[in-house]
Structures are given as C-alpha cells and as structure tokens.
C-alpha cells in the first residue's frame, strides 16, 4: 500500500501509471462517512447486489476481486480529508493492507510454478491519494 497523502499525485495520474504497467484499475471516489465509503467501494468495484455494507463484507468482496483477477489489480482510493481523521479510515486502510498481503500468497488452486509450488495469486496494489 502506498499512501500518497501530501505527495501531489492525482488520482488520474496514479490510475494512468497503473494502467501503463498493465494493471486493471478501479478508482474509488471520496466520501466522508464509513457508510458512504463502503458504497463508493461497492460502486467502483462492482460488488454484487448482496454486498452487506460492512467491513466483513468489504473484506470478502475484495478477496473475490483478487481471486477473480486475470492480472494485477490497482485500487486508487481518493480519500477525503475529513475521512482521514476517522477511526473507520484506519480500519479500512488496515483491511486493504491485509488484502494486499493475501493477494501475494501462493494460490493452492493455481497451476504449480516452475519450482513445483503453487502458482502465485494475482496481486493487488492500493494507492491512497488526496481528494
């Protein structure tokens, strides 16, 4: 996870760099409350209609994004200044970091790699940018 807070990087620039590297890119628009942020993730990543709009459901749907990807995936999250100051921001940021870690573990269902181990999952990168 890269938190580009204060770096002057726009969401468009971050998304373009990821696309240039061959990643599938999702841009999550800013919101000020946990409920609104969860809705933005659901809309941007096209979560199923039964998405529960809570942190457990977010974790499950993000894992589904990783498991269903055919290449690298980048989420560019435009974080509002107001939301950065909340406990929910810290919780969601931690959940995203955990999902990045999960994406880097070998996938036991994938074809074995050159060294006989399970193949790698497709990786997730999360970029946090200022709104």
Biggest β-sheet, characterized? 4 strands, parallel
In the CATH scheme, the class would be Alpha Beta
**Could you report the average pLDDT, rounded to the nearest whole number?**
90
Please state how the strands of the largest beta sheet are arranged side by side: 1-4-3-2
- CATH fold name: Barnase, Chain D
Overall form: globular
Tell me the number of strands: 4
How would you describe what is shown here?
This protein has 131 residues and is of the alpha/beta class. It has helices at 11-20, 34-44, 55-67, 81-84, 87-103, and strands at residues 2-3, 24-28, 73-79, 124-130. It has a four-stranded parallel beta sheet with strand order 1-4-3-2, with helices on both faces. Helix 3 packs parallel to helix 5. The chain starts with a strand and ends with a strand. The model has no long low-confidence stretch (mean pLDDT 90).
Can you describe this structure in just a few lines?
With 131 residues, this protein is of the alpha/beta class.
List keywords for this structure.
Barnase, Chain D; 131 residues; four-stranded parallel β-sheet; alpha/beta; globular; 42% helix; 4 strands
List the helices and strands and how they pair.
Elements: E1 2-3, H1 11-20, E2 24-28, H2 34-44, H3 55-67, E3 73-79, H4 81-84, H5 87-103, E4 124-130
Parallel strand pairs: 1-4, 2-3, 3-4
Helix pairs in contact: 3-5
């Amino acid at each position: 996870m890269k938190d580009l807070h204060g770096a002057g990087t726009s969401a468009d620039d971050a998304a373009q760099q990821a696309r240039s590297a061959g990643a599938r890119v999702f841009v999550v628009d800013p919101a000020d409350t946990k409920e609104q942020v969860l809705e933005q993730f659901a809309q941007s990543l096209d979560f199923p209609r039964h998405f529960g709009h809570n942190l457990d459901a977010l974790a499950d749907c993000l894992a589904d994004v990783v498991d269903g990807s055919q290449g690298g995936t980048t989420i560019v999250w435009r974080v509002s200044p107001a939301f950065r100051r909340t406990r929910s921001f810290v919780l969601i940021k931690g959940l995203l970091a955990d999902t990045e870690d999960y994406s880097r573990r070998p996938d036991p269902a994938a074809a074995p790699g050159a060294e006989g181990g399970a193949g790698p999952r497709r990786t997730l990168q999360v970029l946090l940018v200022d709104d």
